[in-house]
């Protein structure tokens, strides 16, 4: 219970600030309506109006929660969980690209890190380019990736996964390079005295030592992969996915729809990162590192 108190305090503070922000940002429209109607609003009436606007600048938490329930739980009850109006359906579309991009990014990141650690030429040449790649704004490069892949006949899930991979491989590379280099020189020299091959050294020493570095990198990579999948849906004019919900909401000024998609994306990311965290505990415990 003691561990929950700080979390609940922060959550409560967020809700208080959120409601206060909703009143402040939505008040001008409430005053404008009252002025045209020739009436004066009391504080109670003002707050009630800002909490119930159809297109508020900042929707209050209860409006966002109601929208999420309407497009998730209510859809499940009606048997329409995968209806095109359901956030479950849109979350699944985005999740598919996220997981594929995460898998590709993790694989690429591990391969590059092994090459960087074992090959000095790659260390001196590839690593600076890996770092430089992250200085390019993803919003600028995403349309280019989509156009190039469409030009060679590749569309659908893969282009979004490639954008996810682009964002997710970097933390894996950085974390794994640090992890693979974490064994001290005495341990590496000991492996050499046993005539261990580079492959044996990698499998028996460096990879196990890198596990505490790999999992935190995977958590960052998973969150980045989800962002990449959402961004990948924007330049394509997608009609499905959380990015499509954000795009549709921005077109029609449906701020409640935008916020519900954002909160859903945050919940999905938290769930995925939580799964990696649980896997980390199991793996490190079995390896005797936790």
**What is the number of beta strands?**
0
Q: What is the count of DSSP helices, taking H or I runs of 4+ residues? A: 12
Rg estimate, integer Å: 24 Å
Percent helix among the residues?
A: over 70%
Order of SSEs:
HHHHHHHHHHHH
Could you tell me the strand content as a percent range?
under 5%
Question: What does this 3D model show about the protein?
Answer:
It is a single chain. By secondary structure, this protein is mainly alpha-helical. Helix content is about 80%, strand content about 0%. It has 12 helices and no strands. The model has no long low-confidence stretch (mean pLDDT about 85).
Short descriptors:
290 residues; 79% helix; mainly alpha; elongated
Topology readout:
Layout: H1 4-37, H2 43-50, H3 61-71, H4 73-77, H5 87-118, H6 120-133, H7 138-151, H8 157-180, H9 185-193, H10 198-233, H11 242-251, H12 255-286
Short synopsis of the structure:
This protein has 290 residues and is mostly helical. The protein has helices at 4-37, 43-50, 61-71, 73-77, 87-118, 120-133, 138-151, 157-180, 185-193, 198-233, 242-251, 255-286.
């Amino acid at each position: 219970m003691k561990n929950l108190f700080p979390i609940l305090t922060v959550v409560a503070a967020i809700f208080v600030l959120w409601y206060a922000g909703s009143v402040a940002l939505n008040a001008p429209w409430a005053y404008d309506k009252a002025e045209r109607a020739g009436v004066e609003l009391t504080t109670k009436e003002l707050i009630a109006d800002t909490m119930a606007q159809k297109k508020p600048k900042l929707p209050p938490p209860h409006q966002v929660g109601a929208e999420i329930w309407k497009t998730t739980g209510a859809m499940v009850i009606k048997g329409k969980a995968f209806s095109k109006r359901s956030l479950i359906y849109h979350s699944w579309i985005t999740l598919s690209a996220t997981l594929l991009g995460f898998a590709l990014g993790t694989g690429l990141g591990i391969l590059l890190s092994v090459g960087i650690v074992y090959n000095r030429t790659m260390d001196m040449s590839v690593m600076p380019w890996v770092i430089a790649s992250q200085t390019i704004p993803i919003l600028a490069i995403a349309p280019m990736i989509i156009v190039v892949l469409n030009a060679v006949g590749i569309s659908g899930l893969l282009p979004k996964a490639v954008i996810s991979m682009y964002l997710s491989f970097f933390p894996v590379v950085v974390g794994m390079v640090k992890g693979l280099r974490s064994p001290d020189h005495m341990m590496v020299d000991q492996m050499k005295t046993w005539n261990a091959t580079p492959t044996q050294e990698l499998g028996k020493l460096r990879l196990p030592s890198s596990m505490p570095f790999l999992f935190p990198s995977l958590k960052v990579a998973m969150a980045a992969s989800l962002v990449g999948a959402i961004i990948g849906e924007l330049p394509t004019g997608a009609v499905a996915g959380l990015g499509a919900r954000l795009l549709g909401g921005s077109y029609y000024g449906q701020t409640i729809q935008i916020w519900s998609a954002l909160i859903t994306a945050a919940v999905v990311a938290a769930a995925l990162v939580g799964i990696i965290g649980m896997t980390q505990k199991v793996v490190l415990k079995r390896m005797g590192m936790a």
